[in-house]
Amino acid sequence: MTGNGRRGRRILAAAVVAAALAGVLSGCGGPDDVSTATGSTQPAATQPSATAPVAANPEGTNAPLPEGAAVAPSPTGEPAPEQCSNPTASLRPFPDGAPESPALDRIRARGRLVVGLDTGSNLFSFRDPITGSIEGFDADIAREVARDLLGDPNLAEFRILSSADRIPALQDRLVDVVVNTVTVNCERREQVDFSTVYFEAQQRILVAQGSGIHGVADLAGRRVCTVAGSTSLTHLQRAEPDAIVLTVPSWSDCLVVLQQGQVDAVSSDDSLLAGLASQDPYLQIVGDSLSPEPYGIGINKYDPDLVRLVNASLERMRQDGTWSRIYDRWLGILGPSPGPPVPHYQD
Predict the structure, then answer these.
(1) For the segment 82-97, what is each residue's pLDDT rounded down to a tens digit?
(2) CA–CA separation, 147 vs 227, rounded Å?
């Protein structure tokens, strides 16, 4: 197909969806407020959108879209940003425990490790509906870091962040670390620092059974959900620029709009998609990988001692079997444990 033909089809399809999702193109409100969660059943606070877009379901159910939903602008065709040498290389762990340092002493004086995550990433971080506590693979990894720094895994205090708020929260020191399925890449490394990789995922596609979608090529002219502030949007638009992308605040929102027929597919890391699929037996993950997604623990760029402490904790988890036990507890749905990722260091 010619470039003009693809562009014309994309414009026409976008116009149809824009009409069906009336009001969404006007944008969304402010990001979710950061709220604390220490096992309480009180939900995270959110800030209402000034526009509060509500749109009819394209399939005719008149179900409202999630607050903050927006149709992503069409890709510009700009080349991918220049890559750095090895974004996953981190600082070596302390060889003999954790010394005194401003970053570590600040956390010790407070008596708790403030951890940013969300509660919409089933299997990785979610609120248990019975106990009200935050559970999942990421939550348990964070508790182990608190154990090594403060002597007690229960001294991890969780603050709820949207995907778009993760980097700003680190830069503004609203949290000490972010353990929230954050993909390590060169662009983010310019803004914050990262631990070694603690989990490796692959971006794929989630659809309803019988959808006729088998891979990324089938997404041309289709509506696809992803989360604002995630790397999934960029990778998806590069792989299939004719896809019409709806961004929402959380992955649980993507599950809702897929089930309601407001989108045809969801694209994200297979680890997150597995968490969504576990909640609906009529959903399936399809297609080859769009991109590797190495997860690292985000840390403020000016806290190298905290980076080394976190890496020491991750190394301990690799060596004593803790990582594999956490994997088996939460991620068995992905298959047998592949073992923890091999760390790479820059010094």
Answers:
(1) 578 899 999 999 887 7
(2) 31
Sign of the CA dihedral with 136 first, then 138, 141, and 147 last = negative
Which CATH number does the domain 102-200+293-334 belong to among 1.20.1250.20, 3.40.190.10, 3.40.50.261, 3.30.1030.10?
3.40.190.10
- Give the CA distances from residue 326 to residues 11, 202, 235, 317, 318, in Å, rounded to whole numbers and listed in that order: 46, 20, 29, 9, 11
pTM of the complete model: 0.77
> Which of 35, 53, 279, 67 is CA-nearest to residue 161?
35
Average pLDDT over residues 335-345: 95
CA distances 38 to 22, 126, 201, 281, 290, Å, are: 39, 13, 28, 32, 36
3-state helix, strand, coil in the chain (%, to 5): 35, 20, 45
Q: Where are the domains positioned within the chain?
A: 102-200+293-334
Instruction: Kindly tell me if the per-residue pLDDT of 56 is higher than 50.
Output: no
